[in-house]
User: Fold these one by one.
Assistant:
Number 1:
Amino acid sequence: MQGRKDFTPQLFYELSLDRLVPSDNFYRRVNQELDLHFLYKSTQKYYGTQGQESIDPVVFFKILLVGYLNNINSDRALIRYCSNCLDVRLFLGYDLNEDLPWHSTISRTRALFGEEVFLQLFQLILSLCVGKGMVSGKRQAVDSAFIKANASMDSLVEKEVLNDASAFVNELEENSEFKVTSTRKKLVDQHHNWKEEAFKGMPGHVKTLQKNENGEAIRPKFLSNHTHYSPTDPDAKISTKPGKPRQLNYAGQLAVDDKFHVITGACASTAGSKDSAIFPEIMDQTIENLKQNDIQIGEVLADAGYSSGTSLQYCEDNNLNAWIPNFGQYKPERKGFIFNKEANRYECIQEGGNKAYLPFKRTLIYSKGYEKKSFRSSEQDCGKCPLRESCCGKVTKFKKLEESIHKPLYDKMHEKLTKNKVYHRRLVKRRSATVEPVLGTLINFFTMKKVNSRGMVQANKHVLMSSLSYNLKKYLRFIFKIPSVLAQVISLNQGKNYAFIKRDHFELKTSILSHFNFRIQYTF
């Protein structure tokens, strides 16, 4: 018979929230394993002694955890989700008749707490993973990914060029990075002249912007961090990747242990800076996080984007066994020349040449901060050399070579990688299989695709929360293991065997009872 359900709301109910949530619920397990009472002491300094009570810091961080675990990046949507879920209400400690905090309270409290509170929570969850043997410290894989900023490319404003010395003094007093001094006017003019010549036919106005197949606007290539900034979010920088439009981004830096892919270090950086400039920062945090758990780093794996003299020197100073391929412009040797370390000079060994010497002349500092050594020969040695035109050029009568002041460190890394080619190839695959899936998971499932707030400090909190939520979920899956496929198959086979026995028993009983001697005669 067909059923039909009619709903008539009752005036009074006798029930409890605890009874409505299953005993094996995910958030019950989070409450059992994660003790957040340390937050009361850590956040005490951010509150006064008078006035209206604010949101409970434990409740605040639990709400954030719910958002990151469910890939909810909007505070309004997060509060709606928490209000509608019984298990989340039980997790937060709010009964059915209680109203949750306003979404604006979440935003203000996030801005109120400092980065160290978020870092302490990250370290707490990392220590839980270490306690279960999920972190070995043998290898740490480092990589980064762009995070879209909460600002539009339409908000970009061109930087102002200051023309006199008094304005330069005002800039120093204001400590503003959005004005450039008259000393840079020439460089800025050169940049503008170049972009006008190189991109004559490109659209420049919002109304004339072209769009790609996804409907996203294709921005002019001459928008750069040297000439433009966003007043909406000044810390966000213009950046792009091949095949994608330019946009305002941050960068999320991660260090991941290769045993169970637990994140051991996380921070945000500007997308306008190179990964090599952030390498000491992410490694300092990773070393400190593991040091608190009595773990020492064995090897550090990174791609060529982290290769720089500063990074290699940092590894030397901290006794880190780093495997970082040198960048593409590195040259292990100069064709036709050898380097004499004792005399600190290059020597020509080309057949048919004058065997000129190129002694060290000076150290050059370029506009981007690079320091290079300059080696140069005399015109007397190379001026009448038969190979001058092919070696020095048609006009120049001397040979000049430049190299980084950190070339000994690059040479050492190059020698290390070439001597262990097979092992290095294994490490390259190991790094890709360790950190890149973690970055993809954070971006697609833990809200790290876009920063909901603005500023570098808030971006750093965002990366920390996304990372600790990932570690927490991995930890809970590790201690509450789901039965493997093999175990399920064995259990299924056992069920089939039991059903087979029951069927045979039933058939045997039926055949015996159906015999003539066991028939029961009924008389009426």
Number 2:
Amino acid sequence: MPPIEPTIDPSDESPDSFEESSLVTAELVSPPVVDAELVPGWKRALASVGRWGLLLVLALMTFGFLCSGLSPDPSEIFDESRISPTEVVQQDDSISDGAGPDGIVFDNVAGASIEPVSLRSSQQESSSQPNSRKGDAGLALVAKKLEEQWRAELDSRDLDSAPMADWMTVCRRLSLALVGTGLSLEEIRSLQRLPEADRVETHRERLLNSDRFHHYWAERTARYLVGADEGPFIFYRGRRFRTWLAEQYAKNTRYDELVRMLITAEGVWTDRPEVNFHTVTFDSGENAPDPIRLAARTTRAFLGVRIDCLQCHDDFLGNVSLGDASWIMACGADDEAMNAAAGTEDASWLLREGSQEDFHSLAAFFTAATSEGVQGLKDKRADYEYQYLYEDETVPVEPNVPFLRDLLPPRPERQREQTDEKDDAAEQGDASEASAEHVVEQPKNAPESSELPKYLSDRERLAYWLTHRENKPAARAAVTRVWTLLFGQPPAIETDHGFQVGEVDNLPLDSPPSPMIETLTEAFIESDFNVRKLIRCITDSPAFRVSSRADFDVTEQHELAMAVFPVTHLRSEQVAGAAIQSGRIKTINRDSSFLVQLQQFGSLTDFLKRYGDLGEDEFTQQPVTITQRLVMLNGKLISETAGPNPVLNASSHIEMFARDDEDVVRTSYLTVLNREPSERELAHFAERLTRESREKNDPPTSRKQEITDLTWALLNSSEFAWNH
């Protein structure tokens, strides 16, 4: 049908008539019709197949990259013979600038790393030094002394000790304490290729040099330094602070240096992460650090002493004993000598009850840290006033420390006055008299002027006192923290109520620590406050290597005296970490694929939200709740870990590649519980995997379902959720 063309009068030039005629034309004119396709059908089909094939290949390559992580062969990771003798490895022991004092010392030994460390240490040493620690005379001396004290403690209490644990149990303890997870099957197989005598030591050195240790211990350290709360939104960056701590652990920064950096931090909290130690308290004041909270946090974190109650009143109940305890200053003097000194003026070591002044004089140090807007935290002169109980007005409070005041350097004015007096006396030719007068003005055993800088701010004075080598309570608090992280509970102490478990942040000054803790404290000081050496020393002791099982009735006194390893419930993050690792054959670390790390982060966050987290009070022993048991029995994490997943889950890999049913049971036990099954366990579960046994079930079950049930049962066992 030919198109209909309307007739338009040229004389009608009105806009309305033109638009109407155009509309009629558009409606009547039909589109052109294509007679035939110009491109053959087979070519279009081939192009479509090519495009979809290319897309499929790219998708498979991406998925393979995410799942595999492009990790090297495990034999190449753990083959320590491939390391060149001239290769430089990470240095994990800081070296003192000067010669250390006589006493218990450690030798620097490099350890092979299980995984590459991205946060490299600034100090390195050659790997030509022996990897074995058998020739380390310093550690051998400490280990021998600890063993003698351990056996003497058991003999004094008339207790028998359990035998030493097997290497796999000790390695599981190390993994739970240092990285918060159990052993992976990859780690177990690599250690089985080594001589049994070297397996524990090799595994410990790999963990100490891994990123997992740096980040896990940074998280644990941040909890008692700044708490587990989010803090003020603008002025606190918790993730930056934890990352900074991980960098310090990677560099093996000395503990005393770490404390000094935290106490004297200056700058913006985003540029200088250590400033977050102060800015986390900004929500208590007017955009300024809260000296009250900082004083309480400092005493708990760095001194292991609770003096919070002294904020409002003196100690009326005798709960806080301050002063220089005899076990710190008397150095083992007998009772007769101490009684004789008590009647003289030289009795600075005597204990006394705490007062309000003790707390607020310590808080006065932190008023020197003031906020300067965009410039961040700046250091000024401490200016602190407080109205004590029963007083009518506020009074200025001078910065001071609650005990061992002889170790605190004088304030800047005093330093300058003493220098001016010495100069004037020298000009008058009376240097000897000025020297004698100078000695009288200084406190007894005060640091020499030549040992200190010309000017020390108030916070620097506090940091100097906290990290002084003679401040044993501070070093004892650090040793107690490390001990608690390794054992899961603080060391036991003698109290008026008997031998009982102590507290990590409430160490009494009125009674000496146990001989083992005192030895570790001295060794920690002599090693220049090296945390890794302290970890090696504790984990080499028989208290850490002893078994939790014995052929006699185990009582609470056996666990307190370390006659057996104390059985403690795993913390929330340890339960989650061990469960997530149990679902993988390979070790989950920062070299794992992005997909695995993302899944680990999501599963861990969701599990902790449902399971519960004690926060900074994570070492408080509490019974397992019904909610926690239900989360383990019916929770998403456990079901996904045990369920079939041929791409990621260990249970599916075991089902596909195990040689026989017994091999399935053995591998499952190694993956989840990090031990070999007993003969009875092996026979029972191997029988359930046979075809005849599966067909007897109602309804019949598959082999895959039986392996899933086995993994689920092991994850919900009491053995999995407890450190033993």
